[in-house]
Amino acid sequence: MTPLYERLSNGIRVRVQPRFSLARSEPADRQFVFSYHVFLENLGDRAAQLLWRHWHIHDATGDDTEVDGEGVIGQQPLLVPGARHEYESFCVLRSPVGWMEGHYTFERGDGTRFDVAIPRFELAAPISLPENEEGDPLMH
Protein backbone atom coordinates (compact mmCIF):
# COMPACT_ATOMS: atom_id res chain seq x y z
CA MET A 1 0.00 0.00 0.00
CA THR A 2 1.25 3.47 -0.86
CA PRO A 3 1.87 5.65 2.23
CA LEU A 4 -0.14 8.82 2.83
CA TYR A 5 1.65 11.76 4.47
CA GLU A 6 -0.40 14.42 6.24
CA ARG A 7 0.05 17.80 7.92
CA LEU A 8 -2.40 20.41 9.20
CA SER A 9 -1.27 24.03 9.49
CA ASN A 10 -3.16 27.31 9.55
CA GLY A 11 -6.45 25.47 9.06
CA ILE A 12 -5.40 23.80 5.79
CA ARG A 13 -4.84 20.04 5.70
CA VAL A 14 -2.30 18.78 3.16
CA ARG A 15 -2.13 15.08 2.34
CA VAL A 16 0.39 13.64 -0.14
CA GLN A 17 0.52 10.17 -1.66
CA PRO A 18 3.71 9.47 -3.67
CA ARG A 19 4.22 6.64 -6.16
CA PHE A 20 7.17 5.37 -8.17
CA SER A 21 6.50 5.31 -11.93
CA LEU A 22 8.51 2.48 -13.48
CA ALA A 23 6.91 3.05 -16.90
CA ARG A 24 8.29 6.61 -17.05
CA SER A 25 11.65 5.87 -15.40
CA GLU A 26 14.98 4.96 -16.99
CA PRO A 27 17.04 3.44 -14.14
CA ALA A 28 20.02 2.72 -16.43
CA ASP A 29 20.16 6.46 -17.19
CA ARG A 30 19.67 7.41 -13.51
CA GLN A 31 16.19 8.81 -14.11
CA PHE A 32 13.68 7.76 -11.46
CA VAL A 33 10.23 9.29 -11.91
CA PHE A 34 7.88 9.70 -8.96
CA SER A 35 4.33 10.99 -9.16
CA TYR A 36 2.61 12.48 -6.15
CA HIS A 37 -1.08 13.09 -5.56
CA VAL A 38 -1.85 16.08 -3.32
CA PHE A 39 -5.12 16.59 -1.43
CA LEU A 40 -5.81 20.04 0.07
CA GLU A 41 -8.72 20.74 2.43
CA ASN A 42 -9.73 23.95 4.20
CA LEU A 43 -10.70 22.96 7.75
CA GLY A 44 -10.75 26.59 8.91
CA ASP A 45 -13.61 29.09 9.01
CA ARG A 46 -12.29 31.53 6.38
CA ALA A 47 -11.68 31.23 2.65
CA ALA A 48 -8.09 31.14 1.39
CA GLN A 49 -6.56 31.12 -2.09
CA LEU A 50 -3.41 29.21 -2.95
CA LEU A 51 -1.00 31.65 -4.62
CA TRP A 52 2.45 30.09 -4.56
CA ARG A 53 4.31 26.84 -4.01
CA HIS A 54 7.82 26.11 -2.77
CA TRP A 55 9.37 22.64 -2.96
CA HIS A 56 12.63 21.26 -1.59
CA ILE A 57 13.54 18.08 -3.49
CA HIS A 58 16.37 15.84 -2.27
CA ASP A 59 17.83 12.64 -3.71
CA ALA A 60 20.44 10.21 -2.39
CA THR A 61 23.16 11.61 -4.67
CA GLY A 62 23.06 14.79 -2.56
CA ASP A 63 21.32 16.65 -5.36
CA ASP A 64 19.02 19.24 -3.73
CA THR A 65 16.66 21.32 -5.83
CA GLU A 66 14.44 24.24 -4.82
CA VAL A 67 11.36 24.85 -6.97
CA ASP A 68 9.13 27.93 -6.69
CA GLY A 69 6.14 28.81 -8.81
CA GLU A 70 2.67 30.29 -8.97
CA GLY A 71 -0.18 28.04 -7.92
CA VAL A 72 -0.28 24.33 -8.64
CA ILE A 73 -0.39 22.88 -12.18
CA GLY A 74 -1.51 26.23 -13.57
CA GLN A 75 -4.26 26.81 -10.99
CA GLN A 76 -4.65 29.04 -7.95
CA PRO A 77 -7.60 27.37 -6.24
CA LEU A 78 -9.82 29.27 -3.81
CA LEU A 79 -10.70 27.06 -0.86
CA VAL A 80 -13.80 28.19 1.01
CA PRO A 81 -14.35 26.55 4.42
CA GLY A 82 -14.83 22.81 3.89
CA ALA A 83 -13.64 22.92 0.26
CA ARG A 84 -11.15 20.45 -1.17
CA HIS A 85 -8.75 20.56 -4.09
CA GLU A 86 -6.53 17.81 -5.43
CA TYR A 87 -3.93 17.51 -8.15
CA GLU A 88 -1.17 15.23 -9.36
CA SER A 89 2.35 16.11 -10.43
CA PHE A 90 5.75 14.42 -10.65
CA CYS A 91 9.48 14.83 -10.13
CA VAL A 92 12.56 13.12 -11.52
CA LEU A 93 15.41 12.00 -9.24
CA ARG A 94 18.88 10.77 -10.16
CA SER A 95 18.70 8.10 -7.46
CA PRO A 96 16.04 5.54 -6.47
CA VAL A 97 15.43 7.22 -3.11
CA GLY A 98 14.87 10.75 -1.87
CA TRP A 99 12.25 13.02 -0.36
CA MET A 100 10.27 16.19 -0.94
CA GLU A 101 8.82 18.83 1.37
CA GLY A 102 7.86 22.47 1.17
CA HIS A 103 5.04 24.92 1.66
CA TYR A 104 2.19 26.69 -0.09
CA THR A 105 1.53 30.41 0.32
CA PHE A 106 -2.16 31.23 0.70
CA GLU A 107 -3.99 34.57 0.87
CA ARG A 108 -7.18 35.44 2.73
CA GLY A 109 -9.83 37.85 1.42
CA ASP A 110 -8.36 40.68 3.53
CA GLY A 111 -4.95 40.29 1.84
CA THR A 112 -3.30 38.46 4.73
CA ARG A 113 -0.79 35.86 3.47
CA PHE A 114 0.28 32.74 5.33
CA ASP A 115 2.25 29.57 4.67
CA VAL A 116 0.91 26.03 4.85
CA ALA A 117 3.46 23.27 5.39
CA ILE A 118 3.73 20.36 2.96
CA PRO A 119 4.86 17.32 4.97
CA ARG A 120 8.14 15.67 4.06
CA PHE A 121 7.35 12.55 2.09
CA GLU A 122 9.65 9.73 1.10
CA LEU A 123 10.31 8.76 -2.50
CA ALA A 124 11.55 5.19 -2.89
CA ALA A 125 11.71 2.97 -5.95
CA PRO A 126 11.26 -0.71 -5.19
CA ILE A 127 14.62 -2.42 -5.26
CA SER A 128 14.85 -5.99 -6.49
CA LEU A 129 17.91 -8.17 -6.08
CA PRO A 130 18.91 -10.73 -8.69
CA GLU A 131 17.81 -14.21 -7.64
CA ASN A 132 19.20 -17.70 -8.10
CA GLU A 133 17.12 -20.59 -9.45
CA GLU A 134 15.65 -21.23 -5.98
CA GLY A 135 14.45 -17.64 -5.70
CA ASP A 136 17.05 -16.63 -3.09
CA PRO A 137 18.79 -13.24 -3.45
CA LEU A 138 22.26 -13.36 -4.96
CA MET A 139 24.75 -11.62 -2.71
CA HIS A 140 28.21 -10.81 -4.06
Overall description:
The structure is a single chain. 0% of the residues lie in helices and 56% in strands. It is mostly beta strands and 140 residues long. The chain has a single domain, classed as Immunoglobulin-like. Strands 4, 5, 6, 8 and 9 form a five-stranded antiparallel sheet that branches. It is elongated, with a radius of gyration of 18 Å. It starts with a strand and ends in a 16-residue tail after the last strand.
Distance between the termini: 30 Å
The domain tally reads: 1
* Structural class category: mainly beta
User: Average pLDDT, to the nearest integer?
Assistant: 92
Uncertain regions spanning at least 5 consecutive residues:
none
Which secondary structure elements does this structure contain, and how are they paired or packed?
Layout: E1 5-9, E2 12-20, E3 32-42, E4 48-59, E5 64-70, E6 78-79, E7 84-93, E8 97-107, E9 113-124
Antiparallel strand pairs: 1-2, 2-3, 3-7, 4-5, 4-6, 4-8, 8-9
Key terms:
five-stranded antiparallel sheet; mainly beta; 140 residues; Immunoglobulin-like; four-stranded antiparallel sheet; elongated
Concise description?
With 140 residues, the chain is mostly beta strands.
